[in-house]
Amino acid sequence: xxxxxxxxxxxxxxxxxxxxxxxxxxxxxxxxxxxxxxxxxxxxxxxxxxxxxxxxxxxxxxxxxxxxxxxxxxxxxxxxxxxxxxxxxxxxxxxxxxxxxxxxxxxxxxxxxxxxxxxxxxxxxxxxxxxxxxxxxxxxxxxxxxxxxxxxxxxxxxxxxxxxxxxxxxxxxxxxxxxxxxxxxxxxxxxxxxxxxxxxxxxxxxxxxxxxxxxxxxxxxxxxxxxx
Length: 228
Prior knowledge:
Helix content: 25-40%
Oligomer: single chain
Order of helices and strands: HEEHEEEEEEHHEH
Structural class: alpha/beta
């Protein structure tokens, strides 16, 4: 596409397909990192979006995505795609935020509670009252851009895209356990921890292993067969 597609409610383009067009637009305009502060369930996924993500990755573009705000470890796309840096939100105490999704598909966590964010001028902000156009917002959509910024700094230091991602994960600080409530049987975890730019820059060379597939792998079974 020459320009981003319309996202008006009455258009026929679905969200994943609109994201795919946005990725193609970013590729054409020379992006090195693409931040996707949104997601959708596995049942709404699109092959077109997967192809667009793979095309970007084949050109060395890093894809960062937010994991969602439903306090669940369910699969969210495109966060669960292979090679996509998946981001949860943590609060000032370093623990995963109460609203944030979590689990083995999530790579890192970043600040996502009461983040000063741009806000439509026609809407009156409720928390940030100094001027219009800004508001304090919470969510993994606010956390993902912090990760994108850290990766941009690492690229600016001269690290390759692969090494920048590896340093992001190796340099992460351990995520603090939240105070467990009576309704919670476990604490929220992510794969690497909370982002830390200084630790990522200063990380020493070391072996690094990451999951090839973060999402469950489908295994066809004929039922009558003894093998999968």
